[in-house]
Write a sequence for this structure.
C-alpha cells in the first residue's frame, strides 16, 4: 500500500530534550516536506526537499533541522524543543508536479 | 511571505445545496494550484492539481476552475451531502521556474453540511 509513515504519532516531552520525528514514504517520490498546523494559522511549510541531499527552508524553519540521506526518509529534528513548537506536524511526499501525499500526523507537546 | 487567501472561512449549508469557495493566490511566478480535502482527525487528501489558465477539473460532484492571470480558483460542490463536511485547502506553488515542492497553503474553508 502506498503510504507516508510518521513516527511517533503522539509525543509529550520537555523543553530542551532533543527529539526526532521520522517520516518514510514507499512511493519513490522525489519531493518531501514537513508542515506544522496551528489553530488559525493553517498549514505552514517548515522544510522541503527536492531530492536526496537537496533541502531548503520553508516559511517557518527556525528551531528545526532536516536531512535527506535516502530518498524514502526525511526526518524532522528538534535539537532543543521549546513550548512554541507544540503543534500538529505533517510529513508529505510527492512526485514532480503531483499532489502531496500526507502522513497521519504527529502531535507534539513540549512542556 | 506571499499569501494565499481563501473565502469564506466557514460555511454552513443544507443537504442538497450547491456551494462554492474561492482561493486567491499571487499570479506572478505561478506554477500550480492544489486543492485538498481535510476531514477532522484525518490527514489532507488531494482533490486536484491545476496548472493551466482556464483549466477545469471534476471529481464526482466536486469541480474546480483556475484563472492564473487574475490569480483565483473556485471550488464547486454540487448537491452537498453531509459526508462533504470538511475543511477545503488550496495551496499555490508559486515558483514559475518550475516545480520546487514549496507550497503556500491558504487557511482553508470549513464546510458543514446539515442533513
Amino acid at each position: 500500500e502506498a503510504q507516508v509513515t510518521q513516527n511517533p504519532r503522539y509525543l509529550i516531552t520537555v523543553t530542551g530534550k532533543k527529539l526526532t520525528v521520522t517520516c518514510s514514504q514507499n512511493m519513490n517520490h522525489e519531493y518531501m516536506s514537513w508542515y506544522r498546523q496551528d489553530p488559525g494559522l493553517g498549514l505552514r511549510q517548515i522544510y522541503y526537499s527536492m531530492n536526496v541531499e537537496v533541502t531548503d527552508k520553508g516559511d517557518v524553519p527556525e528551531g528545526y533541522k532536516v536531512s535527506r540521506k535516502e530518498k524514502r526518509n526525511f526526518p524532522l529534528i528538534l535539537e532543543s524543543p521549546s513550548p512554541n513548537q507544540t503543534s500538529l506536524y505533517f510529513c508529505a511526499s510527492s512526485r514532480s508536479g503531483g499532489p502531496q501525499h500526507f502522513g497521519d500526523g504527529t502531535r507534539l507537546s513540549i512542556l | 511571505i506571499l499569501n494565499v487567501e481563501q473565502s469564506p472561512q466557514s460555511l454552513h449549508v443544507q443537504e442538497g445545496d450547491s456551494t462554492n469557495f474561492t482561493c486567491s493566490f499571487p499570479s506572478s511566478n505561478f506554477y500550480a494550484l492544489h486543492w485538498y480535502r481535510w476531514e477532522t482527525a484525518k490527514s489532507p487528501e488531494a482533490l486536484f492539481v491545476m496548472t493551466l489558465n482556464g483549466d477545469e477539473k471534476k471529481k464526482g460532484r466536486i469541480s474546480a476552475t483556475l484563472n492564473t492571470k487574475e490569480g483565483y480558483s473556485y471550488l464547486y460542490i454540487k448537491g452537498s451531502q453531509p459526508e462533504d463536511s470538511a475543511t477545503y485547502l488550496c495551496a499555490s506553488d508559486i515558483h514559475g521556474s518550475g516545480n520546487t515542492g514549496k507550497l503556500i497553503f491558504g487557511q482553508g474553508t470549513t464546510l458543514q453540511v446539515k442533513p
In short: Chain B has a mean pLDDT of 91. Residues 33 and 50 of chain B are 5 Å apart (CA to CA). Chain B touches chain A at residues 1, 32, 34, 36, 42-46, 48-49, 51, 89, 91, 99-108 (CB under 8 Å). The first strand of chain B starts at residue 5 and ends at 7.
